[in-house]
Specification:
Elements: E1 3-10, H1 16-25, E2 40-42, E3 53-58, H2 66-75, E4 78-83, H3 86-102, E5 109-113, H4 124-137, E6 141-146, H5 155-167, E7 174-175, E8 180-181, H6 183-196, E9 203-204, H7 206-217, H8 223-236, E10 246-247, H9 248-260, H10 264-273, H11 284-287, E11 299-301, H12 303-316, E12 323-324, H13 326-332, H14 341-345, E13 360-361, H15 362-375, H16 377-387, E14 402-404, E15 421-427, H17 434-441, E16 457-464, E17 470-477, H18 482-487, H19 489-494, E18 497-503, H20 510-519, E19 528-533, H21 548-554, E20 561-562, H22 570-582, H23 599-625
Parallel strand pairs: 1-3, 1-4, 4-5, 5-6, 15-17, 15-18, 18-19, 19-20
Antiparallel strand pairs: 2-3, 7-8, 9-10, 11-14, 12-13, 16-17
Length: 626
């Protein structure tokens, strides 16, 4: 916030103008001053919260000035309401507060009892009896203070409270009526505790507290201060054991104490260091940083991103069984809104590798995030923010956990594409065995029960290429959305390979592929592999103008790969798919014979021409000399 605009209101004669003059002159102005002072702007200073500019507007309570008063109240960020005696105090509840409400303004009010030098009743009990009833009746009142312009008592503090009411409002944090932190504040503080509990043992040990302290306040805690904090928690939380550190209850209680003692700016410093807004939501620029993927390029996790997700998995695998069970997953996603929507839609963790108990493994976990980053990088960035990713370099952003691959517009150019995550569409007739192929890809046992695929289904796993390099392969069968997806050029551009699959034991299976290629000629622009599934069954003649081997030969392509999901060699197909996706020029259909390689001929002709020119030059030189 750049400016705090304070509107000073109150009955005539309460000392509004004297308060402002005393602030500006730093002494009481005994000379008569004008009834309404002009607007005053105070530049940012070291003592100003958040270093904001403060504008102070004096007002008149006379009925003829009511229009100006109304305009100034509506333009303000905070109202300083001044009273000085019993009559003006009664008017706070009878006139001023109802008047503010009638204007529909929603700004904090600081209540100031001016001319405190004229009364001796300044004991805490008198102040409590006077101010608490009106604070309880009107929740808009942020704070109360006694001041004296004549004695220059609490004048600076009064306007500091006005600034703080805007820059560090108490209303979103604490419910005075209930005497508790508000639910949104509790949720934010719980997430902060989670992020600070680096070893996830449920306690902030001394090192974790010091790291938290330094992050928020740029200075360490002294051993005495740390002991005092633990002592305060032990006194206010029955049964707490601070020998292990500060637990969640103690952390929340500590912040509640700050709110009760009027030190809510401390809570706001903590919240803002962790990118919370005044509405206690995470800053949009934090969870959605700028990250653009150019056309024909893709997004992948960077080494820092993979390292973060791997460390996260190992940290929450409490039983060290190599898988995250439901309780461990719930604990891991505690500081987030829950599983990503796309994960829920795709029945996570069925999309990736699981152990025998059905829990996602580290291999599956990294594969799942690789797929999420490839398909929706903004979701990965959002969850990196929720889960507390910190860039290795302080000058970098969340986007350092991702990288953008080199665009691969010309797929027919020989050579490998610079991608570690590739997408392959599995296309074929119903019942061809596509779903069983995806199950085999995830090392699931074969199930002979046929269940038609309605919605698109994906599976992702790591594949080791020739030479030992690893890549992540995403297989997707399109279900009933196959026609719509094949007509969508954007979806086709994101695809790295088409796998045409047919049932070698079904005579009507291959014709579906031939019809598809005729209906969607744009498929010719994609690299492809033909696969004959269910090769463990008797091969049958296909009801097609050309048999599969003849058809692929006519395209100058390799004949279909015959495989069965029941064979141990099925893994070779996935390697072949990954190799074709990363080296696309090897998997393109060709409509004619490739042109003959005349490179040797051109080299020979070039050499002969050079020799003839050299001979001519020698002959000419010898002729001239003769």
């Amino acid at each position: 916030m750049a400016t705090v605009r304070v509107c000073v209101c109150g009955d005539e004669g309460t000392g509004k103008s004297s308060l402002i003059a005393s602030l500006v002159k730093d002494v009481f102005v005994s000379n008569k001053i004008q009834p309404v002072l002009p607007q005053i702007t105070i530049p940012p200073s070291i003592g100003t919260p958040e270093n904001v500019t403060t504008t102070i507007v004096d007002t008149s309570a006379r009925p003829q000035d009511r229009t100006t008063l109304r305009k100034e109240i509506r333009k303000s960020n905070v109202i300083l309401l001044v009273y000085s005696d019993h009559y003006s105090y009664e008017r706070v509840a009878l006139f001023w507060m109802p008047y503010f409400r009638s204007l529909g303004v929603n700004v904090p009010v600081v209540l100031c009892a001016n001319k405190s030098d004229l009364t001796d009743n300044t004991t805490p009990q008198v102040v409590e009896d006077e101010m608490l009833p009106v604070m309880n009746e009107f929740r808009e009142i942020d704070s109360c203070i006694r001041a004296s312009a004549r004695e220059h008592q609490n004048v600076n503090e009064t306007f500091f409270l006005c600034q703080k009411a805007v820059t560090h409002p108490i209303a979103p944090l604490f419910d005075y009526k209930e005497g508790n932190l508000k639910p949104a504040c509790v949720s934010a503080l719980k997430r902060i505790f989670y992020l600070c509990d680096k070893d996830q043992d449920g306690y902030l040990n001394d090192d974790e507290i010091q790291e938290f302290q330094y992050k928020c306040f740029d200075k360490p805690l002294s051993p005495e201060d740390l002991d005092n904090i633990k002592l305060s928690i032990a006194k206010s939380v029955p049964g707490s054991d601070t020998s292990k550190g500060v637990d969640m209850r103690g952390f929340l209680q500590l912040n509640k104490i700050y709110a009760e003692k009027g030190r809510h700016e401390t809570i706001w410093i903590i919240l803002r260091k962790y990118h919370y807004t005044d509405s206690l939501s995470l800053e949009d620029s934090f969870i959605h940083p700028k990250f653009d993927v150019p056309e024909y390029a893709s997004a992948e996790l960077s080494p820092a991103g993979y390292r973060f997700f791997m460390d996260l998995f190992l940290l929450f695998d409490k039983d060290n069984d190599g898988g995250l069970n439901d309780q461990e997953l719930d604990a891991l996603f505690a500081p987030t809104p829950g599983l990503p929507h796309s994960w829920v839609e795709s029945s996570f963790p069925s999309t990736t590798v699981r152990n025998e108990a059905g829990y996602i493994t580290l291999q599956g976990w990294l594969a799942q995030w690789s797929m999420t980053t490839f398909l929706e990088p903004k979701t990965t960035l959002e969850y990196l923010a929720y889960l507390g990713f910190e860039p290795p370099n302080a000058r970098e952003t969340l986007a350092s956990a991702l990288k953008v691959t080199k665009p691969r517009k010309r797929r027919r150019r020989p050579g490998r594409v610079e991608r570690n995550v590739v997408l392959c569409y599995i296309i074929g007739a119903s019942g061809a065995g596509k779903s069983s192929l995806l199950d085999a890809f995830l090392n699931r046992p074969f199930d002979g029960l046929y269940i038609p695929t309605i919605k698109p289904r994906r599976a992702v796993n790591s594949v080791e290429l020739q030479g030992g390099k690893q890549c992540y392969l995403i297989l997707e069968e399109l279900g009933e959305l196959e026609p719509a997806i094949l007509e969508n050029q954007v979806r086709l551009d994101s695809c790295d390979l088409i796998c045409y699959a047919y049932d070698s034991s079904d005579p009507d299976s291959f014709s579906h592929i031939v019809d598809l290629r005729k209906r969607y000629p744009q498929l010719d622009d994609l690299p492809s592999i033909y696969t004959a599934l269910k090769a463990d069954k008797d091969k049958t003649t296909q009801r097609s103008e050309l048999q599969p081997d003849q058809y692929t030969s006519s395209l100058m392509m390799s004949t279909p790969v015959h495989v069965s999901v029941t064979w141990n060699s099925i893994g070779e197909l996935f390697v072949a798919l990954a190799e074709a996706a990363t080296n696309p020029s090897t998997a393109f259909p060709k409509s004619e014979e490739p042109p003959p390689d005349r490179t040797s001929l051109y080299l020979a002709l070039g050499a002969m021409t050079c020799a003839a020119v050299a001979a001519f030059m020698i002959w000419r030189r010898s002729t001239n000399s003769a």
